[in-house]
Structure formats: C-alpha cells, structure tokens
Amino acid sequence: MGNPVLQTFPLGFPWQTQDPFLFCVYHLDHYPKGNENMGPDPKLLEGRNLGNDFTLKDGWRMYHGHTIPGFPYHPHRGFETITIVNKGFCDHSDSLGAAARFGQGDVQWMTAGRGVQHSEMFPLLNTDSENTLELFQIWLNLPKKDKFVDSHFKMLWHEDIPIVKEESATIKVIAGNYRGTQANDPAPDSWAANPKNEVAIWNIHVDAESEYVLPKAKTPVTRTLYFYEGSEIFIGDKKINPNFGIALDASLEAEITIGGKNAHFLLLQGKPIDEPIAKYGPFVMNTEEEIQQAMKEYRTTQFGGWPWPYADNVHDKESGRFAQYPDGTLIKKP
C-alpha cells in the first residue's frame, strides 16, 4: 500500500482548503473572566485595535468586537457556514429572525444561499473563571444551481451528534458516514445533503502512543486532515508536526502513529464541485458580474434588514443554550 500523503502545509489563519470547501478557520482564545456586560474588563482592552483586533495578545483576540469579542452583523451569499464550538459559547443572530446561544460541542449549519446577514459574538459568561473559546468555522460551497436557494438555519445539538468510540480514538461525526455511523442531516440544500458527494466533517481525537487507521473513501473526493493539537505523528515514514495540514489520497487508508501526546484532528472531505469561483469578502459566486450584483443587492435590500437592536447582538446572560427559529419555534437545552 502506498503512502496516502500528497502534501503537507503549515496551518495559517485561515487554514488552506480544497474544493468543495472554501475556508476553514480555528479560533482558540483563552478569554479572561467576564464582567457584568459579558465582555473583558475595559482596562484589558487598552492598547488593542478594537474593531479589527486579530493579534493574539495575552492569549486572546477581540476580532471585530468593541466590548464583547466576535463578529457583528455581516452578509453572506452563495455558500454555507458550519460553526463547531467545542469550548465556550457563540451567540448567533440573523436577518431571518433566527437566534441561538450554542457551545460545549454544538454545531450550527447555516445556508446563506441568496443572502443573509448574521452576527457571531462570544459572550464571556463566567465571571469567576476564564472563558476559553475553541471554535472552527468552515465554509462549504454551493454549486451554481443552488446559490440562490432560500437561506436556512439549523442547529446540531451536541447531545444528538453521533460519537464513535474505538480502541484508541473518538470520532465526532458532524457530516458524512464514518464506518457505518451516519451523521445527522445537514441543511436541506447543502452539497453535503447528497450522499453521492461523500462530504465528511469529522473531529477526531486519538490517544497518545497509539495507532489509528483513517478509513478510505468510497468515491473520488478531496480529503484534508488538519492536525491542530498534539506532538508529532507519523503517516508511513513521514513525520508530521502539529499545526500542519495534510492533503491525503482518499482512495487509500491512512495508518497514523501517534506520538507522546493525544492528537486532535479535523477532517474535511468531499466531491469537488469543480465550477469557477469568484470571491469577494463574504460573497462567493461563479463570476465577477455575479459578485457585483450581490454587492448591489446588498446595498439596496440589506438581505432583509437587521431585526435586532445591536449590530453586535448578544442574548441575555441567563438565556442558556437555545435556538429560536425563523418560524418562531423556540428550543431550549440544558
């Protein structure tokens, strides 16, 4: 059996992806204790470039937030966002009227489609201890025929996400099928909704000083394994250090030998859409003309406007985990 490693590359900000994925970013911020407004003590904000604070200082960043870290309202069109919050919490609000507070392993799947605005803020709920945030956000493309589908908001609660436990590994199956264990349904118009596209999103944790075999795919797909925490690993005779991505030949199993620390991976795979891509900030279409049209429509319609009181909308501190759907349905979780 040949070595499945096609390429390795350092993990930057964002991470390098392959079609059908457009973007993947990993946020790990060790936020301090929160104040009564769910943000850091104002004294800790001195010297930061508020509104555009992407420099890791004291272990955390404010991103586009001014008083609470996160991303105030902004538009998207032509793709999907998949947000995995392993630690901490994310407060979501959008122009559909949907809202949520999710975290501790929850996943939000949002189809931007023809256009939506949303905000993603990171409230610091703990006032007596640190507020660590660990979050992945993945952009999954939509094919030309689906770029103008209705926008859609979906929650995948961590209690419902399949977990596969093997001898030395634990695999969280967010999308796709792992050795016969099928993930929950994605958003209905997603590229991942068709099993023939073999889209997979797996968060894989493997014990130190053990071996793990990543199964091969059934069809021709791109496959990228992101090694974001641990010590060295070996795939065949190739040594790979943490904070590297690995492009794999998905037609081959990958036999991985783990070093002296537990290893943590994110896997993204899927059938390429194989269409032209035109990108400008939060818009992903097929041509530059479509990008110009998206910008014009956003200026004119604001993709439905913003129904919330603040651009950086944050929910009540005592809200707990919840989802409010556009039709008014309210789901609360422990």
Automatic annotation (TrEMBL):
Chain segments annotated as transmembrane: none
InterPro entries tied to this protein: Pirin, Pirin_C_dom, Pirin_N_dom, RmlC-like_jellyroll, RmlC_Cupin_sf
Signal peptide positions (record): none
Record-annotated Pirin N-terminal domain positions: 54-140
Pfam families found in the cross-reference section: Pirin, Pirin_C
Domain Pirin C-terminal, chain residue ranges per copy: 202-304
SUPFAM superfamilies: RmlC-like cupins (SSF51182)
Family the UniProt entry places it in: Belongs to the pirin family.
Protein name listed in UniProt: Pirin domain protein
Provenance organism: Flagellimonas lutaonensis
